Amino acid sequence: MITLSSDFGSPYPAAMKGVLLERTDSRLVDVAHDFPRGDIRASAFWLREVLPYYPPATHLVVVDPGVGTDRHAIVVRAGDHVLVGPDNGVLLPVAQRLAGQGGDGHDGAFADALDVFRVDEDGLETPVPTGSESADGSTTFHGRDVFAPAAAAVESRRVSLDQLSWSSPLESPVEYRLPAAEVSDERVAGEVLVVDDFGNLITNVPGTVLEDVTEIVANGDRIPVGDAFATVHPGERVALVGSHGNVELDVNDGRGDDAFGLEAGDDVVLEWV
Amino acid sequence: MITLSSDFGSPYPAAMKGVLLERTDSRLVDVAHDFPRGDIRASAFWLREVLPYYPPATHLVVVDPGVGTDRHAIVVRAGDHVLVGPDNGVLLPVAQRLAGQGGDGHDGAFADALDVFRVDEDGLETPVPTGSESADGSTTFHGRDVFAPAAAAVESRRVSLDQLSWSSPLESPVEYRLPAAEVSDERVAGEVLVVDDFGNLITNVPGTVLEDVTEIVANGDRIPVGDAFATVHPGERVALVGSHGNVELDVNDGRGDDAFGLEAGDDVVLEWV
Amino acid sequence: MITLSSDFGSPYPAAMKGVLLERTDSRLVDVAHDFPRGDIRASAFWLREVLPYYPPATHLVVVDPGVGTDRHAIVVRAGDHVLVGPDNGVLLPVAQRLAGQGGDGHDGAFADALDVFRVDEDGLETPVPTGSESADGSTTFHGRDVFAPAAAAVESRRVSLDQLSWSSPLESPVEYRLPAAEVSDERVAGEVLVVDDFGNLITNVPGTVLEDVTEIVANGDRIPVGDAFATVHPGERVALVGSHGNVELDVNDGRGDDAFGLEAGDDVVLEWV
User: Fold this and answer.
1) What's the rounded Cα separation, in Å, for the pair B112 and C78?
2) In whole angstroms, what is the distance from residue A153 CA to residue A157 CA?
3) Is the pLDDT confidence value at B49 over 80?
4) Judged by CB atoms within 8 Å, which residues 64-123 of C form the interface with A?
């Protein structure tokens, strides 16, 4: 099974699928192709929250603002999963989670326990489209010309990552940690990690801070704490523990980002009433 | 085969797919994840018009504004198909159609002929993501934590819906009927059920009213009746029998909603010239 | 394997998938359903650039502004691939590429070397949805009622296209050529073929004109020529050879269409510095 995640929109993912299907009969599953463009933080968050629900798979991830520069393409072995993508940090939080290490990376060495391999692009067989006599690969679409061929190769021979002729161990991949909230007895200083399609503000504040709390002060406003969106009337604001275990600032039948006037990256300060 | 329909946008459906793939090898087919948010009417309409083209399947449907409240999760057996989703009426028009009962529900008992089961959520095995030690399930994402596990279980053992340890018959599911048009000799009083991505206004008026008619008065304006969009010149309005058998108010190479100034839910009165 | 491409948005493609799955067990792959509406040029371009990466397949394509008129439905045999769609030219550039003829059609007879068959719609078995007693087929949704049944039939019995009871050879399909750039020693006169989701302006100018060039004059402005988006600073304009081998006018971490003030169809004149 190969999952596909990118910020490509359409129709570029379809070219990647063609390359994969030319090389493997594996099942392909689209995770998302509308990650915020070039946004490592949002992409790393969604990958960490979604991919662990999958059975062991090869995960092809292309959020790659540095395409065509000298950044590496990497393959990461994380537990029974393998991730393929650019060496810009986007793979590491989910890789750590898949390897059973939490994925927060805030307690010491981060990538140390992961097996990371650098892809030697010259060693990969470049895809040649039907009707074309040659193809050299592009400098702008490594999803099609580098990552998809690497993912197909890895999917077919996953037992021997160490033996792949076109890869070599990489000791220091680019690290990336999702920002952590600071929790004290008086207040919690966090931020909005992502805004989902419903407009819910997903913060980096652990949901445990809402235990036994019926009301909280969020950026100065008193907000009811609920079990579900429908705890409050339509159009009203609510703080709750979202489906990822983090505090969310939401609106029942409305958009939290509009109601709170916040977007991804903005500070969120929670205080007890 | 499991089909997936929701108003989730992205990437939440990918988490549901992971849960399904962890539990079953069945084919997964996305129907749509952009149903109008929380809109029972539009979702019920599209499900009724699309799912009957499928071979026997398990249909996972999550349009669920009441998630986290005490609304039930249900499983509905309809002919050779099984539907899984919230007990808010969204499943019933398509279930009736799949059971060979028309799907309009305007002639007597609606859900009576369907087998409806209530899901005992505590009896379901909660999904545990790789790298996580525990998962209790969420109050905001039953698509992942309740409906997907139920759909996977039903898909695997469809012969024995009555025997499932985690379900029990539900006598009175929440009913929902798509609104019916009133047809008399002088006029037809209907409404716009949905606006499709082309801007076509799909009404609840049966297409038979356009038989042998070359022109019709729609909300006071004379509109040509055509066989196809291209019956009229680009930019011009046309009334025709759409692909669901209902009267549509459309524009050739343009948007009917803009040209008619109408949206979903608005009244449509048709009169003969 | 059947690929699906259309300008349908959602959820109409799901009805086509139901019809296909009712008739075949083949793998279905979505290429794109958001081609610019009714846009033959953009659709023909994307199909030509994406489908050749696929292994031999049946390609169902529905970009069909003339649905319901007397335009034909056609099946095209191109190398090991088969294409099914409307006879409006959209299939021909990719068919020519798949047949190993380049896909530009600027050097003589275009469709001559392709096997094109006209679909006799009355000979196709019309899809009948579960719960419905009859279906006559629509005049507005041939994707579901004509092209999908034809694609499923072709997919099942691809060896015998000539023997299909519901098809007959078509000698003169509607031709369509993507516009060619005029290259002289002083200047290149081309145009923007499509704007991709990133805002990149993909022109019809062959990338070879940028060989050994570090700067170019595009519509009067001097623009650096780069190897990758990141050749220039974020927000700056760059000309490069895109992943299709054509000249693109792009912005690193920004939108080329906004920065250049150009959209699909606009003229692009390149001059050497």
Assistant:
1) 53
2) 6
3) yes
4) 79-81, 96-103
